[in-house]
Design a protein that fits this description.
Length: 142
């Protein structure tokens, strides 16, 4: 029987070492939602077939490009689609995602020049979830 989860959350916020650099960005109160059975984790980039560690990616003109200038857009789209499927499967209507990521960015993303400059914008997964009526808040807002 499937449980009633309230949230889907970025795995890297909950102790999973899934970031591009192989590290985590754990936030204890978000991780607690998982241990309490209120949330499930997801890493859209891993779901999209990208390895850990991986070359960092940024969004440039609606494409996702890594530091080797390889186009990884399709991996990001696959990961976003699988994340949405998980939300639908578990009837989840809220997400807490890691801001500034090209997948999970909620309020900000990097500007595509790999020079550490932030701009207002959303990651590929965040956009798809929002387009499908799922409320997305950032780790910083939670
Ligand atoms: Fe974390 Fe999302 Fe990046 Fe995965 S894709 S490492 S969950 S910010």
């Amino acid at each position: 029987m499937s449980k009633n989860y309230e949230y889907i959350v970025s795995g890297c916020l909950c102790g999973e070492k899934v970031r591009y650099d192989g590290k985590t960005k754990t936030i204890d109160k978000i991780k607690k939602l998982v241990t309490e059975g209120k949330a499930i984790t997801v890493c859209p980039e891993v779901l999209g077939g990208l390895p850990v560690p991986r070359h960092p990616c940024e969004i440039q003109n609606n494409k996702v490009i890594n530091t080797l200038e390889e186009d990884k857009t399709s991996n990001f789209k696959i990961g976003a689609g699988k994340t949405l499927e998980l939300c639908k499967k578990h009837k989840i209507k809220k997400a807490i995602l890691k801001d500034k990521s090209p997948s999970c960015g909620t309020n900000y993303i990097y500007d595509g020049t790999f020079t550490n400059k932030l701009i207002k914008g959303q990651g590929i997964t965040t956009k798809l979830l929002q387009e499908n009526g799922i409320e997305v808040i950032s780790d910083e807002e939670y």
